[in-house]
Amino acid sequence: MARVAAPRRPFLGHSYNLVGVVASLVILGWMLIAIFAPTIIPHSIGDIVDDDYFGPMRQGLWLGSDYLGRDMLSRVLMGARYTVGISLAAVCIACFSGVVLGMIAAVTGGWLDICLSRFLDAMNSIPSKLFGLVVVAAVGSSIPALILTLAVIYIPGAYRFARALAVNINTMDFMTVARVRGESTAYLIGSEILPNIIRPVLADFGLRFVFIVLLLSGLSFLGLGLQPPLADWGALVRENIGGLPFAAPAVIVPSLAIASLTISVNLLIDNLPQKIRDRDA
Amino acid sequence: MTSGVLNLVLKRLAIAVVTLLIVLFAVFFATSMLPGDTASILLGQAATPEAVAGLREAMHLNDPAILRFLRWLLGLLHGNLGTSYANQMPVAALIGGRFVNTMELAGITTLLSVPLALTLGVTAAMLRGSLYDRTVTILAIGVISVPEFMVATLAVLLFAVYLKWLPALSSVNEAHTLTDLVRIYAMPVITLTFVISAQMIRMTRAAVVETLSTPYVEMALLKGASRSRMVLKHALPNALGPIVNAVALSLSYLVGGVIIVETIFNYPGIAKLMVDAVATRDLPLIQSCAMIFCLGYLLLITIADIIAIMSNPRLR
Questions:
Q1: B157 with A247: Cβ contact below 8 A
Q2: Which chain B residues have a beta carbon less than 8 Å from that of A255?
Q3: What is the pLDDT of residue A5?
Q4: Considering its fold, how many domains does chain A have in total?
Q5: Cα A250-A251-A257 angle, rounded to 5 deg
Q6: The complex's ipTM?
Q7: Model pTM?
């Protein structure tokens, strides 16, 4: 489904096209910013550096100022830390638990499989934003609570995806052979199933990362995510929404930051070599 | 309809009921995990320990959780949604009018987005690979990849700030004429339509593209059928099941969409009510709103699955 006819060049055994390379550069850029944000921000995020609020872009304040006159560039760079960090932690927990449970369910079968699938399917039928609202209302919005909430919301999806893949592998001859040899469940899922499903699972990891970034931003935008003085990109849009009638950069830039990250991940996955992306690779 | 289909449909309905029970259970326990003691929150800081203990007794807060859950469930069956903690009004009265508002918003959005998305999806699939197809697909991916509030803010920027066609905020009570009404609903509906349509366009396009690659469509092509006849007579009837399924699934995204859209446009619906209830920790209200949303979502997903079962010719 390569829509863009870009020049392909081989690298590490795969060929990549231009869109994929640009997308991965954007993702890499945000990752580096998330790691080094505290050392590269020009002003401290709490300092009021502008006499005017919702100031325009100008020299020294490259992205203007926010509703209190704080430097927007520093706040967006630090926001990357929270958005990328929290989402990455949540997606790691969600995918790890979901994939391990899914493989165990597929290999074991029987009642364990039925009960797990029923329960997780029921969890899946709660709309994610609603789930987030209720859980955040219950356990609050500290960073560990947010990470766990987001992870729990996306475990059922990861489970379903991994289980569907693992069930196919489970019917292969080499699985029967391994069973006859008397291998343990841990060996079966770790050494026989996982290597065969790892590539689509990684693509799914990327998609789920996008969902989590969107949900986290949505929650923060509603004022139920990260609490002040911390601010991720969603919270930055929320606190500066008053600048919307003046089209202030303070409200546009954080939105663009979210969009650049999520669109890049989607484009990267869409432009991955077919070999990696395919379910039955 | 044969008994095989009937069995599958009944089985699907049974699963929906079990799911609903699990969901209700989850909502009840998530909300009863809320920090702080409800009785002492209600009575304020000046309350004596005896008064708090008395109220706890009166509200059955000392009973085991499972008993309270069953009592709540029984109340639901009788149409008793409980009393709001924040202003002592019955929850049913708080929800009533706002439910109608939300349904109006959802209804208008559905009427607009379904024909729009189906037209775009089917035509994009017919002209697969063309510039038109690529534009539609890329726009749809773009809308899916950004948060709903960004679509909303962009819509406000475009229509209210630059073009000055529409007001940025809506207030249903001030509507007197038809023009007022259109101006009020326009922004929320435009935003929701964008969000819902993007999903629907992608799924519809995928369904039609898949049908177009089947042997019987190739046969029609070899017979010399025209392109439109091939799509309308041969491919579309067979893609109908997946398409209706895609419509029902996309409409369930309305649930996530209205939460953001009602908040950003200050629209008086149940989603806004629920977000406010979460901020004030108003348990009965959160539970009832969450229940309504889950019910709507489950209903749409179940309909989608049943249509998928019924449209499968192998089961007919």
A1: yes
A2: 146-147, 149-150, 153-154
A3: 45
A4: 1
A5: 90
A6: 0.75
A7: 0.81
